[in-house]
Amino acid sequence: MMRYIAPVRMLAQYIPMAASNYMGKNVKEFTKELMVVIPKYIQAALDHPENGRVFADIIGSELLPEEEKTMYRLSGEGFGLLAAGTETTAATLTVITYYLLAQPTAYSRLLAALKGVDPLNLKWTDLEQRPYLYAVIHEALRFTPGATHRSSRIARDEDLVYTSKDGQVRWVIPRGTPIGMTSVINHSNEEIFPDPDEYTPERWIKEGQPNYALEKSIISFGKGSRSCIGMQYVKPLPFIVLASKI
User: Fold this and answer.
1) Is there a contact between 165 and 185 (Cβ–Cβ < 8 Å)?
2) Which of 145, 171, 228, 239 is placed for a possible disulfide with 127 were both Cys, Cβ 3.0 to 4.6 Å?
3) Rounded Cα distance, 187 and 14, in Å
4) Res. 161: pLDDT tops 90
């Protein structure tokens, strides 16, 4: 609602903490994080910029206009970093846990794939070479697409030209036109992922090796210049957690 209705989004900054107490636990926690916890970190960055806090770099950067360096704007950026770095990974691990317990065959295959792994001496270079572990995680990423809303993009300098598969229809989207789609639609495309409602790690393995070509159809982290800035740091986490716990 806040994303698509601008007046509601603008009013959110004026909701006092006292009012949030009557709006449910989730709203209360959200409001507290946005209006109390994160502003404290921002203020600490202002008071002690030498401590190397991320907000100190943002506030001191010339890339962000001065009029946008408000407490409200920076709190929003901070909440975005917090949500993107915690909820997404937690959701992926939740999906993996459920389906491994619901599908004992997949669980057994993963145990076999992790045979010989020392949970106290994990090496990322070793874990990424285990095809079934790769498959379990990428199938979970397909089920947990990160941002479920439309990811808007604008081609500012060129018209976009699309042709149907049979070559009979051609579309031209004028430059400057906002377009968007949800990752859920792409991840549920039966032409790319047969039986999309089924959790099937095997689809990610081809001739005994990870099916890296299929990764082109996964947009959990977005694509291109606007993709997730923390993808290379977050992506290994499920590998490490699974190998250490299973």
Assistant:
1) no
2) 239
3) 37
4) yes
Q: What sign has the CA pseudo-torsion 149, 237, 225, 12? A: positive
Q: How far is CA 228 from CA 41, 46, 67, 80, 178, in A?
A: 23, 27, 25, 11, 20
Q: Which two tokens stand for residue 35?
A: 């209006």
**Token pair listed for 185:** 């639609």
Q: Does residue 168 fall inside a structural domain?
A: yes
CB-based contacts of 236, cutoff 8 Å, min separation 6:
124, 127, 128
- Map residue 49 onto helix, strand or coil: helix
Categorize the per-residue pLDDT at 15 as very low, low, confident or very high, splitting at 50, 70 and 90.
low
- Residue 48 DSSP symbol: -
- What would the pLDDT profile of 45-54 be if each residue is shown by its tens digit? 778 877 767 7
Residues spanned by the domain of 163:
147-180
- What value does the mean pLDDT of the chain take? 83
Q: Which residues of 204-234 are buried (b: 16+ CB within 10 A; e: fewer)?
A: bbeeeebbeebeeebbbbbeeeeebeeeeeb
Q: How many domains, the chain?
A: 1
- Segment holding 155, helix H or strand E: none
Residue 101 lies in a domain: no
pLDDT band at 176 (very low <50, low <70, confident <90, very high): very high
| Domain assignment present for 235 | no
